[in-house]
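dumping this here before i forget
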Amino acid sequence: MKPGAGDAEALGSQHSFDLFRGHHYALLATLLTSAPSESTLQLLAALKGDASPLGRAHAALAEAARTARATVLEREYFRLFIGVGRGEIVPYESFYLTGFLQEKPLARLRQDLAALGVERSPDLVELEDHVGVLCEVMAGLLGGSFETPDDAGTRFFQAHLQPWAPRFFDDLASAEAAEFYKHVAILGRTFMTIESEALALAA
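structure:
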């Protein structure tokens, strides 16, 4: 059976929405796995906003990027996520769900990644349950980088981001060291809310 015009339009609309989601996950992955470079800041400064919560988050992040300096953000990123011994924020699924690193949530994640055929990059220095790595996986699932079922992104979000990422972004927004990253946190928290609301509507 061939899809009708209405079906094709719906499929196109869903594809566009998935690309929109994938771009946001890719942006979050870039900002959460390392401090932004000057070239990244220039791209962020060009973000456009509107009156929606996500649009306001875009505008605020763009404004912060216009006055930020990469060398300063390297120190902010270090204080937040690395630190001497430990950063102010510990951005791992296992830590948020159990209070410890490398616990059962990481084992479940590795099983799910293996089932999806997603292999760990040899260049990856973080554990797979780092929030930035999870966002990178989501970007790949939604952007078609992996040969996975259509609902793989939804199931991955429900299993590995929805239970803890909103709390992580809330903590990041209120972290003492967060200045530029407060705006990253607001963008991430707003986007997580949109993701959860979209899933609730689709249920």
